[in-house]
Amino acid sequence: MNPPERRDFIYRYLHEYQTVSISTLVSLLSVSHMTVRRDIRVLEEEGKIINITGGIQLNDALRQELPWNEKALIHHRHKRAIGKYAASLVEDGQVVYLDAGTTTFEIAQVLAERFHLTIVTNDFSISHYLMNKPQLNLFHTGGQVDKRNYSCVGNSAAMLLRTLNIDIAFISTSSWDLEHGISTPYEEKVLVKQALLEIARRKILISDSSKYGKYGMFRVCPLSSLNDIVCDGQLPMLVQQQLQELNLKLHIVNI
């Protein structure tokens, strides 16, 4: 691997395993300690990671997301279970919004076999998957194209959403916690998510537990703005208790 490929590997590895030791990276990459430390220094200067005793971990202040196709491979078993459960919350005849994301794609795969639904999405992967399902009504928001995440963002997408009545909106995120609420490193995503908060009758955050405790620069909303949160059972028990004290319903999906 060349240096950018090594650094990309380290960053993806941390998204899946949270922390890693220097010696493990040396073994995985088949390079010297000095080479690994050079790569770590670059990632640290970019604000993506922080040093801990004997290794590194992701910076809780999320500055960049992984591309869609790489995120899809991480915690896939959890995302599939969350997606299946979330789809069970949808009733026939509803207008359903699926936010851009790999967990919402799992919802789409389940809803693809349903009837009498209207699906609205800003995600190209979801719309492409549902394109050949004639029993579903399908709308795409359009707007500024986020090539990294295969989706549309920005004011144009938000304006389209404000012309609709959404029964149930599944909202994705790369970072959330009790202190910062839902957040993102990308300003263009905020407008879309905030439009959903205005117009959707039921607003549901779907996220695997690995995204909890991270935060991006741009705040979308406090968690109290939601009706439901669907997450896996690896969410810390104290956090589960604190969330249940809010005026929302927490759904824990045991894997």
Automatic annotation (TrEMBL):
SUPFAM superfamilies according to UniProt: NagB/RpiA/CoA transferase-like (SSF100950), Winged helix' DNA-binding domain (SSF46785)
Keywords: DNA-binding, Transcription, Transcription regulation
Record flagged with keyword Cell division: no
InterPro entries reported in the protein's UniProt record: Carb_Metab_HTH_regulators (IPR050313), DeoR-like_C (IPR014036), DeoR_HTH (IPR001034), NagB/RpiA_transferase-like (IPR037171), Tscrpt_reg_HTH_DeoR_CS (IPR018356), WH-like_DNA-bd_sf (IPR036388), WH_DNA-bd_sf (IPR036390)
Coiled coil: none
SMART domains to which the protein is assigned, alphabetical: DeoRC, HTH_DEOR
Entry protein name: Glycerol-3-phosphate regulon repressor
Species this protein is from: Xenorhabdus miraniensis
